[in-house]
Amino acid sequence: MPQNSLTQNEPFTPGITRTPTERMRRKVAHIAATCAMGAWFLLAVAPVIVVLLEVR
């Protein structure tokens, strides 16, 4: 049985209501974090590519 299932007796109460400004800030923060993770990935992959190109 799913953990988040509701029964007939439990009313649906939505989570925290956020203002449009807060939603936008969260979305921008999420995009920035995604870009930062991509940058770390490129920093990790770049030396490997350089070594592979030098071996040829």
**Rg, nearest Å:** 22 Å
Can you tell me the residue ranges where pLDDT is under 50 for at least 5 consecutive residues? none
Mean pLDDT: 85
What is the helical fraction, as a range of percent? Answer: 55-70%
Number of DSSP strands? 0
- Taken as a percent bin, the fraction of beta residues is under 5%
Helix tally equals: 1
Oligomeric state as shown: single chain
Give the end-to-end Cα distance, rounded to a whole number of Å.
56 Å
Q: From N to C, what is the helix and strand string?
A: H
Major β-sheet, in short? Answer: none
Molecular shape: elongated
Class from helix and strand fractions: mainly alpha
Which keywords apply here?
56 residues; elongated; mainly alpha; 0% strand; single chain
Description:
With about 55 residues, this protein is an all-alpha fold. It has a domain at about 20-55. The protein contains one helix and no strands. The protein has one helix at about 20-55. The relative contact order is 0.06. The model has no long low-confidence stretch (mean pLDDT about 85).
Strand-helix topology:
Blueprint: H1 20-55
Provide a compact summary of the structure.
With 56 residues, the chain is mostly helical. Helices cover 64% and strands 0% of the residues. It starts with 19 loop residues before the first helix and ends with a helix.
